[in-house]
Write a structure and sequence with these properties.
Length: 148
């Protein structure tokens, strides 16, 4: 079965308690459960991970390349400044794998420092602003692209 790693960056382990008016009341554990269910429906083997550590996230992106796994990535704050995450994400897409950047909120409507993504230019595409549905839509996009 086609593998998809759903990778999440810093502070997303605090989902449910962190600024729920922006990020919602559901937790990372809820996302793990939803991810598994969406994967089952789309015939994808979905694994949801979260880390606050930049080097761990870079390592997971390398792992995706080596394992030929597609990636759904919420880089969280790394979105806006991590060239290390950007360079690792580029290795995913240049090796012919899909990488969908996702955000729960719509960064374009928020503080100006969130308006720029250093990852977006190397992603296959981006889904933002739909809460947990951003992840579902990203997985549907992966499944649709693979079926095309
Ligand atoms: C986020 C948006 C980022 O600007 C922020 O730093 C996050 C979460 C989102 O999912 O909306 O941590 O990536």
């Amino acid at each position: 079965m086609t593998r998809v790693l759903v990778l999440n960056g810093p502070n997303l382990g605090r989902l449910g308690v962190r600024e729920p008016e922006i990020y919602g009341s559901a937790s990372m554990a809820d996302l793990r459960r939803s991810g598994a269910a969406w994967g089952e429906a789309l015939d994808l083997e979905v694994e949801v991970r979260q880390t606050d550590d930049e080097s761990e996230l870079v390592g997971w992106l390398h792992e995706a390349v080596d394992a030929r796994a597609h990636v759904v990535l919420n880089p969280a704050a790394f979105t806006h400044y991590s060239y290390a995450v950007r360079d690792a994400a580029a290795q995913v897409t240049t090796s012919g794998l899909l990488l969908v950047e996702v955000h729960l909120s719509n960064p374009a409507t928020r503080e100006s420092f969130r308006h720029h993504s250093v990852v977006g230019a190397v992603a296959t595409g981006t889904v933002a602003g739909f809460g947990f549905d951003s992840y579902r839509l990203a997985l549907e996009a992966v499944a649709a692209r693979l079926a095309a």
